[in-house]
Amino acid sequence: xxxxxxxxxxxxxxxxxxxxxxxxxxxxxxxxxxxxxxxxxxxxxxxxxxxxxxxxxxxxxxxxxxxxxxxxxxxxxxxxxxxxxxxxxxx
Length: 91
Fold this sequence. Notes:
By secondary structure, the chain is an all-alpha fold. The chain is built from five helices and no strands. The chain has helices at residues 3-22, 27-34, 38-45, 58-68, 81-86.
């Protein structure tokens, strides 16, 4: 994997962790809701920016977004309360 992609995956993982915490969810709870393993969540939220091939599929990111009740763009925008509120799907 090119270093610039690792940084992008790491940034998305940080956003997943941020919004998971905003929802008050554990990694295990998010994994159950997104129908993936807790290891998947630990891996994508990790600092190394290494995602498996299955985690790189859009359906994985969509499942995480749905479980967090946010629209997909939150993973590509700055982390903030304003962004969180703007892109919530549970309003």
